[in-house]
Amino acid sequence: MKKKILALFLCCVMVIGLLPATLAFAAETELKVDADTVSLKTTQMKTLTADAGELTGRYQWQIQAGEGVWVNILGANEKTLTLNYGLVASLLQNNTARIRCRMTTDGKTLDSNVVTVEIQPDAAVAKAPAKAPAMSPAIGTVV
After folding, report:
1. Which of 24, 37, 58, 131 has its CA 20 to 30 A from that of 123?
2. Which residues are CB-contacts of 89 (< 8 A; sequence separation ≥ 6)?
């Protein structure tokens, strides 16, 4: 009976001894962007920052181009990404785009949380007339 209790005790000590190392590994392998949702006007710019803790590696920002399809944003390979309307305009779906950061380190690839970018119309753009008035072809006056 004493041997079984001793064996159980030693197993518990080993498991508890491994737990901090496992938690530390999980914590240092997380890549996190500092926002989950960004509201952006068409004339605005905002900066996203990726954080991988103490890990170092190669950053690559990506935009979602379709269901499960992520494409690299050309030249966006720093820890930060400056968002603007022009960057996401061609891939908007219902005025939103999805961005993430990918990091390659020590042969591993880490993907960050996905950031939803919501485009809000600017007041000046929203107040612009939807259709220009028709011009008379003969005299060039407004009809």
Report:
1. 37
2. 119
pLDDT band at 16 (very low <50, low <70, confident <90, very high): confident
CB burial class (10 A; 0-12, 13-18, 19+) of residue 84? middle
Task: For 119-140, give one letter per residue: b (16+ CB within 10 A) or e.
Answer: beeeeeeeeeeeeeeeeeeeee
126-141 pLDDT per residue, tens: 555 556 555 555 555 4
84 residue type, one letter: N
Q: How many residues appear in the chain?
A: 143
pLDDT tens digits, 57-103: 999 999 999 999 999 999 999 999 999 999 999 999 999 999 999 99
Distance between CA 32 and CA 80 in Å, rounded?
12
Tokens 């009976």 belong to: 1
Distance of CA 97 to the CA centre of its chain: 10
CA distances from 87 to 11, 32, 40, 127, 130 (A): 54, 21, 12, 24, 24
